[in-house]
Amino acid sequence: MVQTGHPVERRPSIRGEDRDEAAFIGAMEVVSGPVAADIIDELGPLEFSHLLDVGSASGTWTIAFLRAHPRATATLFDLPHVIPMAEKRLSEAGMGGRVKLVGGDFLADPLPTGADLAWVSAIVHQNSREQNRYLFSSVADALREEGQILIRDVLMDPSRTSPVSGALFAINMLVATEGGGTFTFDELREDLEAAGFADVDLLRSDEWMDSIIRAVKRPRA
Prior knowledge:
Blueprint: H1 17-42, E1 50-54, H2 60-68, E2 73-78, H3 83-92, E3 99-103, E4 117-121, H4 129-142, E5 148-153, E6 155-156, H5 164-176, E7 183-184, H6 185-194, E8 197-204, E9 211-217
Parallel strand pairs: 1-2, 1-4, 2-3, 4-5, 6-7
Antiparallel strand pairs: 5-9, 8-9
Helix pairs in contact: 1-2, 4-6
């Protein structure tokens, strides 16, 4: 990576690419499953009728949001090969009838419209700031007027040395992605505002991946 300036070439393990992908998706459930309900509860009353869960893997957070809001529905958006994993988990959780599944690439395809709340979880660290502005603009286009976005990710202080776990994770992103990293609140606020959001707030601060930022779609002029 130091010699080429590009990420390390990804190679499948002895399990094969498909099983590696399944293991990665399963690991996200292991990390988020035990904390999702409590974190959503911490956020206080969230008034929404339809959730757009972007890059939602097997649906861990979709399930937690819908359990906390029994009258709401959701659209789950992720890469096409991930959708069958999500369909299986949602069916097992009894949520199949409340969730629409849409396959696509959030950096290439338009997002499904009609939601009033978007959840972008553990995604922005994979992207460059330019890619995040594109993603946030896509979310703004997809949301209803005055809809909200919630971003869950690592959040660095201005020195970029704290939290230590985030600083170390930035090295991981440097090695593994073209432009990813860990960002400060001010950087994400600037990118959200450039993409059409306002009233950017930090709802939850965490030493690892569970800091949460909220912003509101700016009314069209």
